[in-house]
Amino acid sequence: MAALTPLSTDPVSTDPVSTDSVAAPVRTARRRRPRYWRGAVLTVAGLYFLTPLVSSFVFTVQVPNQGLTFAAYSGILSADGFTESLFLSLSLAAATIALALLLVVPALVAVRLGPPRLRAVVEVVCMLPLVVPPIALVTGIATVLRWGPDHFSRTPLYQTFLAVQNESFPVVLVLAYTVLALPFVHRSLDAGLRAVDVPTLVEAARNCGAGRLYVILRVILPNLRSSLAGASFLTLALVLGEYTVASLLGFRPFAVWIVSVSGAEARMSVAVSLLSLLITWALLLVLSRAGTGSSAAVPAAAPTPVPGKE
Question: How many angstroms separate the CA atoms of 97 and 48, rounded?
């Protein structure tokens, strides 16, 4: 007799082919469903950011009773103090980036390798500038700068107080900007270090005979390239746009120069502000390119031949 195949009494079919064939059109329909709200949000965001820029540009080129003119842009390079103030701000930004990274990177690496309770302490210290207003910070700095020469006039520290206030390169601004940039640098580098297994990398490098400085420069920093670029850009944007500290201390970097010019040349000041945005965006592109390593440039490793397989 031929064997009879029993019919399944389970009401739920467990055939994966039939399940996939039914669920595939549903997933395709969900994937192809238009998301109109995304376009609406992007449109509103674009108008929010572009409308002030377009209005500012129209204000700089449209002069009553004269028509369309680009005199506000053609006279920027020849304006008194433009080159000096811009070069000063870029120099301060470079020094601030170097000092902030020099302070934060070793601290965060040591925290990753040390006791976990130290992370909260370092985070609180780096976040304090967000709590203290810049006006309070600059008031304390100005008080110390006025108090120092009176009490250290007969000591070598007197020359130090004078040197940090040199108008050609005020070191006191670098110190103040470093404090203001600590929260942004900490957040950017901390996010990068969370994605890297620092203890394993350090242990492997130390087992190979590498020193601590070599581990940081050749092992840790290459894995933080994008985080370093982000921290550098945030610090650069902070320094180029900072006005309160520099103005109250009596220095004239780029942001202070723009405000000082606005009284006599309103259109030129707006034109310079637009150009500063372009410069910031250009530097952002440069830093983003420096922060992303090209994977195509890394040659693929040759496969290891397996014995017995040709």
Answer: 30
Mean pLDDT of the chain: 79
Please report which residue ranges of 195-243 form alpha helices under DSSP H.
198-207, 212-215, 221-223, 225-241
Single pTM value for the model: 0.74
- Tokens 């109109």 -> residue: 36
Q: Report the distance separating Cα 219 and Cα 200, nearest Å.
A: 11
Closest C-alpha among 89, 96, 114 to residue 185: 96
Tokens 């103005």 identify what position? 247
What's the rounded mean pLDDT across residues 73-101? 88
Which residue is listed with tokens 């592109």?
Answer: 285
Per-residue model confidence (pLDDT) at position 277: 82
Q: What is the DSSP string of 11-56?
A: SS---HHHHHHHHHHHHHHHHTS--HHHHHHHHHHHHHHHHHHHHH
Residue 13 in this model has a pLDDT that exceeds 60: no
The average pLDDT across 109-126 equals 86
Most confident region among 48-52, 77-81, 175-179, 255-259 by mean pLDDT:
175-179
Token pair of 59 as six digits? 């204000």
In whole angstroms, what separates CA 301 from the centre of its chain?
33
Token digits of residue 102: 């020099």
Q: What is the pLDDT of residue 299?
A: 41
82-113 vs 254-262: helix crossing angle, rounded to 10: 140
Cα-to-chain-centroid distance, residue 294: 20
d(Cα 134, Cα 185) in Å, to the nearest integer?
17
In this prediction, residues 118-124 reach a mean pLDDT of: 88
